[in-house]
Structures are given as structure tokens and as C-alpha cells.
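@channel sequence for tomorrow's demo:
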Amino acid sequence: MAQEALAWMLSKPFICSPVVGTTSVQHVEEAASAVEIKLSDDEIAALEAPYIAHTKQHAF
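C-alpha cells (generated this afternoon):
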């Protein structure tokens, strides 16, 4: 699932974020392998379908 999440993130030109929480070389290698996953438009749409946008609320 982490690789798919990273592949989704890599499909978005406006997202740039570090990978945090890696505790082993294996984690870094698994994360890096996400560059080899190319999601189709249908796969991206399926991943994004459950998302519900929230309006920004200010605490004043």
C-alpha cells in the first residue's frame, strides 16, 4: 500500500514531500521502487474517489 500511495503522489506534479519514518534500508528500497509503478487514469480515479474535500475553517 505504501508503494501505491507513493506512486499516486508521484503522479501529481504539485505534490512534493519527503519520505519520513524509514527505519531500515529495506524501507528506503521499497519506497524507491514506487517510481517503477505507473498508475492508469482509472486507478488514480479509484484511489481518489473516497476523498471528501473539507472547507478550510478558521479558529478565531
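heads up for whoever presents: The CA atoms of residues 15 and 48 lie 15 Å apart.
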